[in-house]
Amino acid sequence: MAASSDTMSPPRTSLSSNKPQRSAILSWLGVAPFLLFALLFLILPTAMLMVGAFQDAQGNFTLGNIIRLFEPNILSAYRISLEISAASAALGTALGLLLALAAIRGGLPGWIRPTLTTFSGVASNFAGIPLAFAFLSTLGRMGLVTMLLRKYLDFDLYGSGFTILSFAGLTLTYLYFQIPLMVLIIAPAVEGLKDEWREACESLGGSPLAYWRHIALPVLWPSLVGAALLLFANAFGAVATAYALTGSSLNIVTILLYAQIHGDVLHDQNLGYALALGMVLITGSANAGYIWLRKRSHRESA
Question: Which residue ranges traverse the bilayer (predicted)?
Fold first, then answer.
């Protein structure tokens, strides 16, 4: 009996089975530039400063740099940096939330929201020397607002005790990019507040205060705390704005770190590595908290 043609034909090779492999290879090629960038500018520098923090100038192992972090001058720098970061994060969170609520759920004209979003995207990345120059030109001793207050309201801003080269001045400067960043972060969470929740609360006799206390704020709380942590880390790691604005007049850890690595008088590179390691631990903890709270808010809103 002749063999069937089906049994005699060779097996076919499916080309579709290679498509997932090709797709995976293309995906890895697409993400390769980001991985290379992270390796060169984040992972390797962090590893280098972690090693350098435990070395002396000759490359020998030592705990002296870590011990020196507890010196009064360095502890004071960390304390001032933590206070400025916490103040700008708290004010940025509150004011950014109010702006987002007004633009998204406040019944304002439709052009307000895209305009605010566009401005927030630009302002949240406006920092460093240009931002410091802008605030010096506006609120400096001879700044525009300072002169206008003196001329038309007979109010001496600097005579009242304010100076841009102070805790309050630096905190106010940080708010320029903290508030827009908060708007961008919290906007999706504000959009997630459903009108049905308010209507249900009102139908049951609840007041607007009861709605915010028992419904809206509990829903927004993980996003608010996570955003505050991100703003805290953002302010704590800022160096260019603080250095250009205050120079050495304000003892914060980023300026002290810059002086240890690039300065002529306080030059101690390994102590600078230890200072940077402390900053990495603080900002890393804040970012880890933000990521955890963000995942939690996504699970609750799903």
Answer: 25-44, 84-104, 116-136, 157-190, 210-233, 240-261, 273-293
Structural domain count of the chain: 1
- 17 in a domain, yes or no? no
Given a cut of 90, whether residue 83 has pLDDT beyond it is yes
Mean per-residue pLDDT, 8-29? 68
pLDDT mean across residues, the chain: 88
* 176: in domain: yes
Residue indicated by tokens 């607002």: 145
> 3-class SS at 3?
coil
Q: Is residue 53 situated within a structural domain?
A: no
Is the pLDDT at 202 greater than 50, yes or no?
yes
DSSP helix/strand/coil, 243: helix
Across residues 226-244, what is the average pLDDT?
91
User: Which residue is associated with the tokens 């990019």?
Assistant: 177
- Tell me whether residue 134 is exposed, middle or buried, using C-beta atoms within 10 angstroms of its C-beta: 0 to 12, 13 to 18, 19 or more: middle
Q: At CA 128, angle to CA 116 and CA 120, rounded to 5?
A: 10
Alpha helices by DSSP H, 39-110: 44-52, 64-68, 72-105
CATH number of the domain enclosing 95 = 1.10.3720.10
302 contact partners, CB below 8 Å, separation of at least 6: none
pLDDT digits (tens, 9 = 90+) for 104-160: 988 889 899 999 999 999 999 988 889 999 999 999 999 999 999 999 999 999 999
Domain span including residue 247 = 72-301
Cα 232 from Cα 72, distance rounded (Å): 23
Residue 11 lies inside a defined structural domain of this protein: no
